[in-house]
Amino acid sequence: MTSAFLKFADLSLAFAKLLTILIMVGMLISVLLGVFFRFVIPLPMAWPPEAARFLMVAVTMIGASVALRQLDHVGITLLVDILPIRVRGSLYLLGNVMIAVFLLIFIWFSWRLTADMGPRQTSSSLGLNMTFAYASMPIGGLMMLIQLIAVSIEGWRRMKKNESPFNQPLAL
At a CB cut-off of 8 Å and minimum separation 6, what does 143 contact? Predict the structure, then answer.
């Protein structure tokens, strides 16, 4: 069961990485177009900054799931590292449970925002239904939850081997 979930999480991670790259390319193109039309051809367009803002929210939400899985979020483990492995593992799992609770609340309320307010609003310069702009929040939250569960399973397995759950072995 856990192996199947970890394979699913790996596929989700690969998809998130690809999506992050594509969104970053879209954001780069949007910003470059905005700069070009504002400063090279003095005919500024209104939509590139708005598109870049929406894409920045999307890349933040989806990219956070990648950082979560790769244990790349900032963490200070100075005090935790002096504790016994079992206590470290308990704190690790407790922290992950608290993050999961937050993510579930975040997914619920961002989904409600997307479903309730999105169809009733239109972006000012793109003329885009705001459902598309808001959708990155529940999608990103769900992707983070999937990666959090995967990283919790991996941390638990490291703890069972008497290793710190906070450290991911380096891939050589």
Answer: 12, 16, 61, 62, 65
